[in-house]
Amino acid sequence: MDEDKQGADVHRFITEARNGDFNAFRQIVLQYSNAMLSVAFSIIGDFHEAQDATQEALIKCYRRLHTLENPSKLGSWLYAIVYRTSLDFVKKKKQTLPYEEAIAPSINNVDRWLNQYMAQEMIWNAMQKLEETSKTAIMLYYLSEWSMKEIGQFLNISLSAVESRIRRAKEILKRHLTGDFEPYIRLQRLDRNFEQRVSETILRNAGHFYIPVRHREQISDWFVRHFQLGISRHGNLLIESGHELYLLECHPHLPSELPLLAFEVSDIEELWHKLQHDEIKSELIQTNKLIGKHFVFYDPDGNAYHAVENKSKKRA
User: Fold this and answer.
1) Which of 136, 159, 213, 284 sits in a 20 to 30 Å window from 264, CA-based?
2) What is the pTM of this model?
């Protein structure tokens, strides 16, 4: 990507995210998660815990985004957050179980765990021959897929310093490691699944209503067309309670077996016939002593919803 355009995109993502556009923040997560993982691993030395530290740091970033005064400093700002978060993880680990006990595998996965643990330990031990910035630089080189210039901007060092650190780090790692370690490191790269987990955690912790979908615009149009839901200034659906409904685009997407949302309606039969006319998949109307008449219907992605008749609305 052209670096000027990339810088403009980052500024736009920050501005839009500050204004409540959650999808803009998701782009920041996608762009920086592997860089933050590089920092976390260079401090913690365990990829699983480094992922946890990266997720926690991104949650902090979302909560504190309004404190970032200069959008061009986003990289160094994220670096500082994940650095401090990773140090906290190391302190917590020292205060709890010994390292080997804390990550001990289940008996069924012992062989796979042992291979991963040994590879990780060898890489971590070899990295101890490097000074701190070189540790992060070499991990950025393998994990982030950034250019040398982008790595330098993130670490706040010159291009020549990045090149020399990575060159020396490669030589040291190859000298102390047997076999090809590069594929193992690249396998630790974070993908959209990680971004989705972070996004779901943020929305859940913030108390927002959200639905995982395959195609956000398609499902948004579907709700507006069939249920006359409004659109908030942030581009999210507005439900009757006044809350925003976030549509979280996920790939892959596995529909939930249980209804994700309940709609109260004044005339359950009228709605059921309308959905049948619109060829929307719906189950038969049932009657329950506690909730009265209700039925389940599905959106185009296979997500299930509950329609429940509100008798007070009907009388009104």
Assistant:
1) 213
2) 0.84
